[in-house]
Amino acid sequence: GAPHTLNHCRNSMALQRLAVCVRSMALAQPRAMQAVAKPQTTTAMFAVQKRFQSSESEPFQGVMPEGLRKFFPVGSAEDEADAGRRWKARELRAKSNADLHKLWYVLVIERNKLATIKAESRRMRIEMPNDERIKKVQRSMFAIKTVLKERAEAQAQARDGNEEKWIAKRQELGLGWKNEAYSKPDRRPLTDKETELYHGVVPPNRSRVGQPQRPMTKRERTQFRQELEKARTQKAKKEAKEYRDTLVDMSNDQLLKEFETVAAELLDGASTETLSLKSKYCLAEARNRGISEV
């Protein structure tokens, strides 16, 4: 009985010590996690800063076009974390269409910067600093659309309400009946050599006046090849039908001279199925007149 009681006491004391250790670890866990998380966040933000840093020493700066650099954040992700409030519609109503157009592209650039920071923060598995900026940009852009829609509706009502007054006011300002819509410049006309080469099929990537020519997409290339093959087939059939009509008006001597070329092809081992359409018409006409027995 005594050894059993002694072992029971030892086991109870060990369990109590284990419980105290577990309790102390549980209480100290938040501080430990904070102490570990802080260096990781600092290291991660330093990596974000190095990744976003704009300097001439980095290799991608020599490849990236100058116009695209403003779409990427410069410096650390926390440098521009502080932001004001969004634009409201009542503030934008006092601005002109030109100012709204400029502000729209400022917001587009800011939206791209925030998207870059968000993607990089997700890759680094850290929280994006002040992620409410994305909502502010979205609501500001929505406010611009609202103001422009209101102006378009007011313009339509003024035009439909009193047409004569509308026309007189537009003429006084040196404007037409309505705002001229933007029209793309005409495409560059095909040269005679290109028309003959493409059989009248216009390439979809043909450049416009004053603009460089872009490469074809995969879908455009496939569609262009199909249309070009169709045009070539139609042209070959048309030429073969015209040749058939001329064969009917030929004499036997003239037809015999035309048939010599077809006979040479047959002697070289060509079959009647592999002959061109013109050769088939010539062979059929020679059979009808009894010149050939092939």
Residues in helices, as a percent range: 55-70%
Strand pairing plus helix content: what structural class?
mainly alpha
Count of extended strands: 0
Q: Strand fraction band? A: under 5%
Q: Radius of gyration, Cα only, in angstroms?
A: 40 Å
What can you tell me about this protein's structure?
Helix content is about 65%, strand content about 0%. By secondary structure, it is mainly α. The protein is elongated, with a radius of gyration of 40 Å. Mean pLDDT is about 75; it is low at about 1-10 and about 25-60.
Short description:
The protein is mostly helical and 294 residues long. Helices cover 64% and strands 0% of the residues.
Descriptive key words:
elongated; mainly alpha; single chain; 294 residues; disordered N terminus
What is this structure's SSE topology?
Blueprint: H1 2-52, H2 89-92, H3 97-124, H4 132-161, H5 163-172, H6 192-198, H7 218-248, H8 252-267, H9 277-288
Helix pairs in contact: 3-4, 4-5, 7-9, 8-9
